Amino acid sequence: MSARIIDGKAIAADLRARVAAETRRLTQACGLVPGVAVVLVGQNPASEVYVRNKSRATEEAGMRPFDHHLPDTIAAADLLGLIRRLNGDPSVHGILVQLPLPAHIDAHEVLAAVDPGKDIDGFHPMNVGRLATGLPALAPCTPLGCIRLAKTVHASLTGLQAVVLGRSNIVGKPLAQLLLAENATVTIAHSKTKDLPAVCRRADLLFAAVGKPEMIKGGWIKPGATVVDVGINRVVGEGGKARLVGDVAFAQAREVAGAITPVPGGVGPMTIACLLLNTLRAACAAAGLPPPDPSI
Ligand code: NAP
Fold first, then answer.
1. Residue whose CA is closest, atom 4 of ligand 1?
2. Which atom of ligand 1 lies closest to the CA of 192?
3. pTM over 0.85
4. Buried-state track 171-184, b at ≥16 Cβ within 10 A, e below 16
5. Closest Cα to atom 41, ligand 1: which residue?
6. What 3-state DSSP class applies to 179?
7. CA of 62 to the centre of ligand 1 (A)
8. Active centre residues (catalytic)
């Protein structure tokens, strides 16, 4: 059996187009132009690429980007001052602080300083708590993207056995919360889990977010399962050429799984699309408008 490939690029493009259409409608109807402030500290090349992509996607969606590139020598107090100004700026509806931050800055303190209503990354403790208690929340974008991808295969996730490999605050834990909210039966596995292959083989839905190139082998996958690969790992292939691979050994896994996301072109494009959706949600809430149509 060769698995259906879940085309994250196409699914994300479709979501972005629908967010852009709704943004246009709101701009025409009530002059609302959602604004996104992206804060980048230092010169991490990978972060610079992410930030550029985010700004371009923001503009393409009819939203307004506000980029703040700061030197890595910036004092924590000055960064917190900028966050406070952005919190108070009515043209900014979403604030995104690109991680990682330099070692002298406490990332938890900075993320907690963002207005929870503008926290389009869903990292503020208030949003984390609201998600965990089943209240409406801005949820982290990569897990939101994972759920949307899984739902292109399964109309409902109710009662499915979901295994989330990885328990980070930005992927594994919020993904588990979102899966619970979808009524899946959720297992979170991590580096101390015993007999990982057996745990994975129970999964109807397997989400891999470990950051270990091609760790999950074909034999770990239940035949017919849906596999969502969050991992983005740069490896040097034959001839010294770098390429991106996921956490799942794709060639093996696609022979066993029912559906699988590729890397690249799976979860990655969904993250930015969900960021735009979160911005639209935040802008509607700030303007006292109803949330965007859930079918978006
Ligand atoms: P992270 O913070 O490093 O967390 C990795 C998790 O995997 C930890 O919970 C760790 O367990 C677990 N783990 C590590 N090695 C393991 C092993 N051998 N067996 C079982 N569990 C193991 O990583 P992250 O930020 O969640 O990111 C995970 C991957 O997703 C990375 O490749 C990252 O680049 C990618 N990512 C992609 C996107 C996207 O947009 N597509 C977004 C975010 C992240 P412990 O907790 O026990 O240490």
1. 168
2. 47
3. yes
4. bbbbbbbbbbebeb
5. 268
6. helix
7. 33
8. 54, 98, 121
